[in-house]
Write a structure and sequence with these properties.
mainly alpha; 0% strand
């Protein structure tokens, strides 16, 4: 065997190791994120902790608010302690927070646990994406990140089975104890995961980075060009110069509606389906199908966007999502309902990603990260609002309007991204980093 072949083999094994560890971490992230929605119908039925529908919506928003905080601070913290350490801390944080939920004796303590878990959940995903991007084999970065994103939906599927197998015979607390199990993964992650090459280079540990890159035949990243605060604010101001402000606001509004829809449906789907007359087993099967659809959607949306254009696909996807969500308010034969839920998952979970693709493609290279980051950040407020909205509708005995409200959010995103698509971009840019736009989601 030649030396280069041996190095290539070691590089492939290292990439597989990093992707595998990150995939498991994101799987646990998805499990913890979706578990609340999966056990919520049982908690409301049993009046666990004295929870009301309005409080249930608030609790769902606490986790998404924590995710907003975690996502916004992840970059700064990773720059200080390293991506590997941050990933370890995030997994430990949301696992320990789940134990707080499991032992909670009041809604307040449970809400605190969900908020803390959200911080860990929000910080993990962008960090994991950065890690796999560092170690992806040449020319396979987008494919690798796309594969990583499937883990989040796989976690959603796992949450449904955890709830289905444990909640009825044992109780809702058992489901949150399962979410503590990832603590056993923390020492494995700490020992087996290599540090990010980008972090080593940025910290001036060039010799260590070169030795690691040469040992495993991975590309050594260039030293980052550090921006001062003034430059960052200048980049943000650039989103509003001339006629750019209307385009920027359209992207932000589309992202707000899109993430309101994503997290509203993720939190309330089982509860709303029970309200439509389906039993708990069927309602949790909907969660499985919805996330299976998300996996398929992530794999096909990019190809469709490359052929027909990301803004056009995003608008069509949101229209189909709105139709699917609205149809769920109609009691149909079970097989047809399963089909609608699956297709809704296909379109919903990738429609939002195509907003980021549109922003990335239509931004100048120097302003791309700022544009995508702020579009994602504004959308996160929709992620906070969606679970709260569902809870308020149920509290007011208007649960039947839940699907209609979420469908209207999909229509609004379709309109906003559709108008943006009709506007000719002033600065057509080459294709942006697929990793950046996926990280934003």
């Amino acid at each position: 065997m030649s030396s280069s072949t041996a190095l290539s083999g070691r590089g492939s094994r290292l990439a597989a190791l990093v992707v595998g560890l990150c995939w498991l971490a994101v799987l646990f992230d998805g499990l913890d994120m979706f578990i609340y929605g999966s056990v919520l119908p049982h908690m409301l039925e049993q009046k666990a902790l004295g929870i009301t529908p309005g409080q249930a919506g608030d609790l769902g928003s606490y986790a998404t608010f924590g995710m907003l905080v975690g996502a916004l601070t992840a970059g700064t913290v990773a720059d200080r302690i390293g991506r590997k350490k941050l990933m370890v801390c995030c997994v430990a944080l949301f696992s320990l927070a789940s134990s707080l939920c499991a032992v909670a004796g009041s809604v307040t303590v449970f809400g605190l646990g969900r908020t803390i878990a959200g911080v860990g959940l929000g910080g993990l995903l962008p960090t994991a994406i950065s890690m796999v991007t560092d170690y992806a084999r040449g020319g396979r970065g987008a494919l690798t990140v796309g594969a990583l994103m499937t883990a989040h939906h796989a976690g959603g599927i796992l949450s449904a089975y955890v709830a289905k197998w444990l909640v009825e015979p044992v109780g809702w607390r058992a489901a949150f104890w399962v979410c503590v199990v990832p603590l056993l993964f923390v020492p494995v992650l700490a020992k087996a995961m290599p540090e990010s090459l980008s972090f080593l280079v940025a910290k001036g540990r060039a010799d260590e980075a070169r030795e690691l890159a040469a040992r495993y035949e991975v590309e050594l990243p260039a030293a980052p060009a550090r921006k001062e605060g003034a430059d960052r604010w200048a980049a943000l101001a650039g989103l509003f110069r001339g006629g750019e402000w209307t385009q920027t606001l359209l992207y932000w509004l589309a992202s707000f509606g899109g993430l309101l829809l994503v997290y509203g449906v993720a939190t309330w789907l089982p509860t709303l389906m029970r309200g439509e007359g389906y039993n708990l087993g069927s309602a949790l099967t909907f969660v499985v199908l919805f996330n299976l659809g998300g996996i398929v959607g992530m794999l096909v949306a990019g190809r469709a966007s490359d052929r027909f254009g990301a803004p056009r696909i995003s608008a069509i996807w949101f229209a189909l999502t709105a139709a699917g969500v609205f149809l769920l308010s109609v009691h149909m034969p079970l097989a047809l309902t399963f089909t609608v839920v699956f297709l809704t998952g296909v379109f919903l979970n990738s429609a939002q990603t195509m907003i980021y693709a549109t922003v990335s493609l239509r931004s100048s290279p120097g302003n791309r990260a700022t544009a995508v980051g702020w579009t994602s950040g504004m959308g996160r407020f929709g992620a906070v609002f969606g679970p709260w909205l569902g809870g308020q509708l149920l509290a007011a005995d208007h649960g039947s309007w839940g699907f209609t409200a979420f469908a209207l959010a999909g229509v609004s995103s379709m309109v906003f991204i559709g108008i943006a698509a009709l506007r000719t971009p002033k600065r057509p840019a080459p294709s942006g980093s697929h990793q950046d736009l996926l990280a934003a989601s």
